[in-house]
Design goal:
The complex is a heterodimer of chains A (311) and B (278).
Chain A (H helix, E strand, L loop, with lengths): L4 H15 L3 E5 L3 H4 L2 H6 L4 E3 L4 H13 L3 E7 H5 L3 H10 L4 E6 L17 H6 L5 E4 L3 H13 L3 E5 L21 E4 L4 E5 L3 H16 L3 E5 L2 E3 L3 H11 L1 E9 L4 H11 L6 E7 L9 H7 L4 H12 L1
Parallel strand pairs in A: 1-2, 1-3, 3-4, 4-6, 5-6, 8-9, 8-11, 11-12
Antiparallel strand pairs in A: 5-10, 7-9
Helix pairs in contact in A: 1-8, 4-6, 9-13
Chain B lengths: L3 H25 L1 E2 L1 H5 L2 H11 L14 E4 L5 H11 L38 H12 L4 E6 L6 H12 L5 E7 L8 H4 L5 H7 L3 E6 L3 H13 L5 E6 L7 H4 L7 E2 L2 H21 L1
Parallel strand pairs in B: 2-3, 3-4, 4-6, 5-6
Antiparallel strand pairs in B: 1-7
The chains are: A alpha/beta (311), B alpha/beta (278).
The structure holds thiamine diphosphate and magnesium ion.
């Protein structure tokens, strides 16, 4: 099996459908981008092609949920959140329906599709729906776990992901618990909390900082952004004092805000804190490395921020 | 209806748009070939004659506007703007390069001559309504046939008819295909001409490869006194490039060696036709 996340997504849908007759897959003319064609071929009666009409698709999903079906919907992360937010909010969240959402091409991963296709606000939007769950995929095992979890968890579940592969972090989905962050590296001087593709850049930066400064760094994969793992965050910050968060998203409304709010409400203040992420900017076309540089979320940018905070 | 000389000039522009678009995308190695090629004839008619513009003064007060609502066809628009002199032909190589002024989807703040930022399907067409209300000049908009599945398009069309936006001409690129396949399998469009009529438009369907017919329809649209006009362009996705037309999926292509050489052969034919028009 290919390790591209879009293929993992398609394979996991097939796996789930083999066990669950009530599962439905809905696409809005982007099946070709996430390889759900295989699903349509094997389960034609459980596949609904909605055309380029995302808002209608969410309404249809809510209606299917009202009849006991479990819909999985997909479009690019920008269109499946922004373009149909009121439908997600009301027909989904408020009406207490079960809708599982796969938003592909997280942030800079939209590369050459550019500014119209590059979501830096989807996590913020989806966090704002009461009782929603928001997960960002850092490797294939997380994606599989997130999809199985979503099937079982009635409500609005948002999974944010890239389509291409990410380096492997976990051997199996069993290592993942939704709502519990993963400590990937333990240190004493600084905690870096990241999600999605930024986890990999944070790991690279942590190694670099240790090599350069001899200080040790904790790196957490906070794959579940909502509900965020408050207990783990408190434990890490009590140990290291200093804290960085890293997200391929706007610094407003995303992972960094979720983490710092939980900490402060629990009465724990880091001795130094900085959010790394996109600030007051829209997307643009470019290569992945160029875009990470432009938005200050590259491994190098994280390393520099870590050095500054540790100095 | 039109003199042969005049049609030849438009045809020359059309073939040049095709050639420059394809050369730019060959350079890039990927892109929206299909939907860019199906509108070159229409772009040639507009920029070759009907759309009032001045490349030296792209924001000229009395200019006409074009909203490319199917913003992913940006490369065809860029080729047109380059051939008309809004931007340098050389810059077409920079489509999608880091820091480019020519992004995959049309952007009014980056490219001289682009009148609206588009890329999220369904949005441009509403902006065209606002432009048509805000200007006394003519406003042209191009929507994809798949794009018409967005409900927002039909909100816009109701608005246009109610407000009698007779300075508005909407082209539908009826190439029968969208990203995941054929409209007929994804969502049937039914009779587009009738649908537009029911929405209060003057509507005509023409062969979208026939410059004479497109020109005739535009003239009819511009003459309309109290209604907006819809021109359904009966097109083929990849028009002019048989190797692209015959692909089972031709929305967004990533080129391998075989495809590249097949496209180059078709490009040769286009260039020979251009030569013969000289
Ligand atoms: C709101 C929105 N949803 C999805 C997309 C992704 N997308 C880009 S082009 C396209 C297919 C467009 O088909 P059509 O309108 O027929 O264009 P054409 O055939 O002329 O290329 C899709 C689904 C998008 N750009 N915007
Ligand atoms: Mg089409």
């Amino acid at each position: 099996m290919s390790s591209e996340l879009r293929h993992i997504h398609a394979e996991t849908l097939l796996e789930l459908a083999r066990d669950h007759e009530n599962l439905r897959v809905l696409e809005a003319d982007l099946m070709g981008s996430v390889s759900t064609g295989k699903f349509q071929a094997e389960f034609p009666d459980q596949f609904i092609q909605c055309g380029i009409a995302e808002a209608n698709m969410i309404g249809v999903a809510a209606g299917l949920s009202a009849t006991g079906k479990v819909p999985f919907v997909h479009s690019f992360g920008c269109f499946i959140t922004r373009r149909c937010y009121d439908q997600l909010f009301l027909s989904g969240g408020y009406a207490q329906q079960h809708i599982n959402i796969f938003g592909s091409d997280a942030g800079v991963a939209a590369v050459t599709n550019g500014g119209t296709h590059m979501p830096f606000e989807d996590v913020g939007l989806m966090r704002l729906i009461p009782d929603s769950v928001v997960i960002e995929v850092s490797d294939a095992a997380v994606l599989k776990k997130a999809m199985h979890y979503s099937y079982q968890n009635p409500g609005v579940n948002y999974i944010r992901s890239t389509r291409k592969d990410l380096p492997e972090l976990y051997l199996s989905p069993d290592e993942i618990e939704i709502g519990k962050g993963k400590v990937l590296r333990e240190g004493d001087d600084l905690t870096i909390i990241a999600s999605g593709l930024s986890v990999h850049d944070a790991l690279e930066a942590a190694a670099e900082v240790e090599a350069l400064m001899g200080k040790t760094v904790t790196v957490v994969d906070m794959h579940t952004i909502k509900p965020v793992d408050t207990e783990l965050v408190i434990r890490c910050v009590n140990k290291t004092g200093k804290l960085l968060t890293v997200e391929n998203h706007n610094v407003t409304g995303g992972l960094g805000d979720a983490v710092i709010a939980e900490l402060l409400e629990a009465g724990v203040a880091p001795t130094a804190f900085r959010k790394i992420g996109v600030r007051e900017q829209f997307g643009q076309v470019g290569s992945l490395d160029y875009l990470k540089d432009q938005y200050g979320i590259s491994a190098q940018a994280i390393t520099e921020a870590a050095i500054a905070i540790l100095d | 209806m039109k003199s042969n000389e005049y049609l030849r000039e438009i045809e020359h522009l059309n073939l040049s748009i095709k050639a420059e678009t394809v050369k730019a995308l060959l350079h890039l190695g990927y892109g929206h070939f299909g939907g860019s090629l199906s509108i070159s004839e229409t772009l040639a008619c507009l920029y070759g004659h009907y759309l009032h513009h001045d490349p030296a003064n792209p924001k000229m007060a009395d200019r006409d506007y074009l909203v490319l609502s199917k913003g992913h066809a940006g490369p065809a628009l860029y080729a047109t703007l380059a051939l008309r002199g809004f931007i340098e032909l050389e810059t077409l190589k920079n489509i999608n390069a880091n820091g480019t002024l020519l992004p995959s989807h049309a952007d009014m703040n980056k490219t001289a001559g682009v009148d609206m930022t588009t890329g999220s399907l369904g949005q441009g067409i509403s902006c065209a309504m606002g432009i048509a209300m805000g200007t006394d000049t003519n406003v042209f908009a191009i929507v994809g046939d798949g794009e018409l599945q967005e409900g927002q398009c039909w909100e816009a069309f109701q608005f246009a008819a109610h407000h009698q936006l007779n300075n508005l001409v909407v082209f539908v690129d009826y190439n029968k295909r969208q990203l995941d396949g054929y409209l007929d399998e994804i969502q049937k469009p039914f009779d587009l001409r009738e649908k537009f009529q029911a929405f209060g438009f003057e509507s005509v369907q023409v062969n979208g490869q026939d410059i004479n017919q497109i020109c005739g329809a535009i003239e009819q649209g511009l003459a309309s006194k109290d209604k907006p006009t819809a021109i359904i362009l009966d097109t083929e996705k990849g028009q002019g490039f048989p190797s692209i037309i015959e692909m089972s999926s031709n929305h967004h292509l990533r080129l391998d060696d075989d495809l590249r050489s097949a496209i180059l052969k078709d490009l040769d034919v286009i260039e020979q036709r251009l030569e013969s028009l000289k």
